[in-house]
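Q: Structure tokens for this one, please.
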Amino acid sequence: MHAYRSHTCAALTAANVGETVRLSGWVHRVRDHGGVLFIDLRDHFGVTQVLCDGDSAAFAELEKVRSEWCIRIDGTVKARDPELVNSKLPTGEIEVYVRELEVLGAADELPLMVFGDQEYPEETRLRYRYLDLRREAMQQNMTLRSDVVASMRKRMWDQGFREYQTPIITASSPEGARDFLVPSRLHPGKFYALPQAPQQFKQLIMVSGFDKYFQIAPCFRDEDPRADRSPTDFYQLDLEMSFVEQQDVFDTIQPVLTGVFEEFGGGRKVDQEWPQISYKDAALWYGSDKPDLRNPIKMQVVSDHFRGSGFAIFAKLLEQEGTEIRAIPAPTGGSRKFCDRMNAFAQKEGLPGMGYIFWRDQGEGMEAAGPLAKNIGPERTEAIRQQLGLSVGDAAFFLGGKPKAFEKVAGKARDVIGEELNLTEKDRLAFAWIVDFPIYEQDEESGAIDFEHNPFSMPQGGLEALEGNPLDVRGYQYDLACNGYELVSGAIRNHKPEIMLKAFELAGYGEDEVKSRFGALFNAFHYGAPPHGGCAAGIDRIVMLLADEANIREVMMFPMNQRAEDLMMDAPSDPTSDQMMELGLRIIPQD
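A: Here is the predicted structure, written as tokens:
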């Protein structure tokens, strides 16, 4: 017999009754029934109930074991009494009578319990992550993650892609976040960087003639943490193709992701039609470039109904250049109580409030109610109602000003309204491509032009488009949104050196700086670079959605905390003086 087990803790059934078996695993739970010990023995695969009484030579030793001791048992498989069968377990028809016991690893008093569903502080869970990972939900999440990655790989190979690895130690390259720098011992005073993404390398692979590339790629960014973003490292399904247009990329990645979500989505409806929405329209309709389309609410511009109206706040606001009034329809939200609650929400978000109108039945017909309705009169309120397609029992909320100042709050309000009024479909995965991103943005204070999004995107219209107003330039750049999260980002790349120089020139980068920072890419474009494009899908975020988790750390094996600290490994740590001397570095104390 094998030194540790003849079966896993999920393998035994009624067909094994009478056999002598060997199991190894962790003590999940101990129950003492007056001289008879019952233990749920757990391994990665499942749970088997084992028991022992005073007639067994192992009884005295088994009395000593506690939760999370790692043990090996030898015993005989017995059938459970019919009334004691546990139909929820694959091994629920049997139990194993213990005849011999070996303690493989005793456990001290536990800082967190594996059995049960108790909640523990995140600090405790991350410090003792190896215990936290033993819990059933975490085992399932990590297994799901592994299965999702395997499925992605297979689906990419099935589409004719091959996987190639790109370097982990490379040069610093601006990708929109801070680099993690690595000092060089052989070149004192110089630094490598961990790649924020394989962006330049995958483009160079296309220039090298490989046509199709993918990689399950680790990426490193020194970012501020969020619930859906790691502050240090993450993984993405990275792909690139030559001789493609934007639609070719969409047609490639859609069946891969659709298949993954259908395979692991737990029966949720997976949208087959993925609309393409311009960045401008997404901001207008949803207040976000990653809209949740499970929520049917679309915001609209209603400025004309307030110009010269009796509501002085909006009327005067509209006299200023670049301002507008937007409405958030709220079907079934037509009660003063709900409207007041949403007004309070806006105040918590830092706004003075949120105007509203709601429509009610007064017996003699429909009436518009609320402070705004009184100020602008029945004719204007009726025009607003008709534009928004609302009726009795509905409401509308209004925000005004320069769109960039209130769009984010409007988007949040739309989400809250959809949730509170049960308009958002829970059992659905809704996708949308967001397209036509602006390449440039302007700093309001300095007036300086800089890249708003990926600097390597091909501008729509090519070199000619860069001769006009930079703020009007749109790129062949796209994101895929699902249920309010950005899952994919990509672009058709610029592959022409003259366009590259002009694009960076508009953002204040001279030719020498472009050659210095992107020399390999710039030089490669002089040697017959093909048109190419691709995208990257965030694996951590995809698994988070599939696992129905709200925090990305629930689907990462060993994540950092929100302060970018690894509490288990005590990182970041202080270097030794020898290490610093070898690298030619010294630390300047912070005031």
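A few notes: The CA atoms of residues 150 and 510 lie 44 Å apart. The mean pLDDT is 94.
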